[in-house]
């Protein structure tokens, strides 16, 4: 499983050229210094939630908090911070061949379907870590399923670490990753937008448009 430090350092490396091109070398050097300082500060404070079907998602928390703080210190507007973090995620996966991304996507979501029942059982028995995701899960077929996310650690921890503005921007990452993994994905509600849940619909194969320039009014 990828560690938070690997995610942080690899994404920084992959984003370096784009950030320098957009903002200049001085900006990059300051951003790199601030991000590293915040990451080292935040990472030890992020609790270990143990084994979870959302473990990979959870490992992004320290990096997202560090990047948001650094961009905010550099006085970028909230919408611009969102765009930068979207770009960094895109750069992180850009070098993975499409055929491999597609294979990873199918494998990951098939594994998720198999583990969902155990997660729900642990949830019903109150055995999940307090920060773990609480969900409702519906298997529609061998190729499709739905998850309603009822509680999300990103929402709790972003408030705890003083970066409440991190949401709903990072909620949109689901569209980017679904696009890269060649999975079908749709959603009309998120906790980050103030809704009662994140109503996620997944399909093993399909077409999910990323296109952030078109906005997220109907596809939160």
Written overview of the protein:
The chain has 220 residues and is α+β, with helices and mostly antiparallel strands. It has one domain. Helices cover 52% and strands 11% of the residues. It has 8 helices and 4 strands; from the N terminus they run ααααααββααββ. It has helices at 4-23, 25-42, 55-58, 61-73, 78-93, 98-124, 153-160, 173-181; strands at residues 134-139, 144-151, 184-187, 198-203. The protein has a 4-stranded antiparallel β-sheet with strand order 1-2-4-3, with helices on one face. Strand 1 (134-139) and strand 2 form a beta hairpin.
Please outline what is shown here.
The protein is built from 8 helices and 4 strands; from the N terminus they run ααααααββααββ.
Topology overview:
Elements: H1 4-23, H2 25-42, H3 55-58, H4 61-73, H5 78-93, H6 98-124, E1 134-139, E2 144-151, H7 153-160, H8 173-181, E3 184-187, E4 198-203
Antiparallel strand pairs: 1-2, 2-4, 3-4
Helix pairs in contact: 1-2, 1-5, 2-4, 4-5, 5-8
């Amino acid at each position: 499983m990828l560690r938070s430090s690997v995610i942080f350092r690899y994404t920084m490396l992959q984003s370096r050229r784009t950030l320098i091109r957009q903002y200049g070398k001085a900006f990059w050097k300051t951003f790199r210094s601030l991000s590293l300082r915040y990451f080292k500060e935040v990472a030890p404070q992020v609790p270990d939630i143990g084994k979870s079907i959302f473990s990979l998602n959870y490992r992004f928390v320290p990096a997202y908090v560090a990047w948001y703080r650094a961009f905010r210190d550099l006085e970028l507007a909230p919408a611009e911070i969102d765009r930068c973090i979207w770009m960094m995620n895109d750069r992180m996966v850009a070098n993975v061949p499409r055929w491999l991304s597609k294979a990873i996507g199918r494998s990951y979501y098939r594994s998720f379907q198999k583990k969902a029942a155990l997660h729900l059982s642990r949830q019903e028995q109150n055995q999940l870590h307090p920060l773990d995701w609480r969900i409702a899960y519906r298997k529609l077929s061998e190729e499709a399923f739905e998850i309603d996310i009822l509680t999300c650690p990103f929402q709790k921890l972003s408030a705890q670490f003083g970066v409440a503005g991190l949401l709903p921007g990072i909620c949109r990452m689901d569209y980017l990753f679904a696009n890269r993994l060649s999975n079908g994905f749709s959603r009309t509600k998120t906790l980050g937008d103030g809704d009662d849940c994140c109503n996620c619909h997944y399909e093993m194969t399909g077409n999910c448009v990323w296109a952030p320039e078109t906005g997220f009014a109907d596809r939160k």
